[in-house]
Design brief:
Layout (H helix, E strand, L loop, with lengths): L16 E3 L12 H18 L4 E7 L3 H9 L3 E9 L13 E4 L5 H15 L10 H14 L7 E6 L2 E9 L13 E9 L8 H16 L3 E7 L5 H7 L3 E10 L4 H4 L2
Parallel strand pairs: 1-2, 7-8
Antiparallel strand pairs: 2-9, 3-8, 3-9, 4-5, 5-6, 6-7
Length: 260
């Protein structure tokens, strides 16, 4: 369950209920369409009566039968988890940027970039809510990551102004079957709108990949919104490959007062 004032409710609706990738399965020889329909009907009936109307489920990118079964139940893609090795990018990055790990004193610039990302995600067709109640929790979570093992924040500067950043979080954000001790998680990557398409994001990624190789990391994971018109293109163009899709369904809220 996601609390309404949790930083993570920016990505998943408050009071949503989710089943992770490792939280469901169908035995060989059984029809996923039938099994998942019966399971969801059994579990969701009580949850909806208790006021929980948003549901999510993780499915491996290659599991067509499972994805089709959940799609038949009204679920659609919300997020995609993508993975990449740590090999360098094929093209050299921009050389006119200063990229370094953020310190406490750099957090005001980091928070400006987070605000930029929220404004971008609020646009069509993504429509993530830019709620004031979530800004302080998001900033507090970012501050908490600072200094944790393998959770750097790399910021790109030009003339002292922060142009973009990549923020890493604990690897537990990568689903259990797809991570190991040599996995890191890129939690948020953002570039100022005025600088997009000019190589800032690629320069940051190359800097991050170089750090990963020094750390002995073998794999990097991240999530992007399936409806993000530029993020999905950027990450897949730079070597990230879909590994898991988070499917989501929102039940019509009128059921709360119309059911007898």
């Amino acid at each position: 369950l996601t609390a309404p004032d949790s930083a993570l409710s920016y990505f998943s609706p408050a009071f949503s209920v989710g089943s992770p990738l490792s939280g469901h399965a169908v035995a060989a020889g059984h029809d996923p369409g039938v099994v998942y329909r019966e399971l969801f009907a059994f579990l969701a009936a009580d949850l909806v009566r208790d006021g929980f109307l948003d549901f999510g489920v993780g499915v491996l990118a290659g599991e067509r039968e499972a994805a089709d079964a959940w799609s038949a139940l009204g679920f659609g893609r919300h997020f995609t988890l993508a993975l990449r090795g740590v090999e360098p990018l094929p093209a050299p990055p921009r050389a006119d940027l200063e990229i370094r790990e953020a310190t406490e004193g750099d957090l005001p610039g980091v928070f400006e970039l987070l605000a930029e990302q929220r404004r971008f995600h609020a646009r069509a067709p993504m429509f993530l809510p830019d709620l004031r109640i979530l800004r302080e929790p998001q900033e507090a979570m970012t501050r908490a990551f600072l200094g944790q093992p393998r959770c750097p924040i790399f910021v790109a500067f030009r003339d002292g102004r922060a142009l973009g950043m990549q923020l890493f979080a604990p690897r537990s954000f990568v689903p259990w079957p797809l991570r190991d001790d040599a996995t890191v998680y890129l939690f948020q990557g953002v570039v100022r709108e005025s600088e997009r398409g000019a190589g800032v994001g690629a320069a940051l990624l190359e800097h991050s990949l170089d750090w990963m190789r020094r750390e002995g990391v073998r794999r990097c994971g991240l999530h992007y919104l399936s409806a993000n018109p530029s993020g999905s293109v950027f990450w897949t163009r730079h070597g990230f490959r879909p590994a898991e899709h988070t499917l989501q369904r929102t039940v019509d809220s009128r059921i709360a007062w119309s059911a007898r």
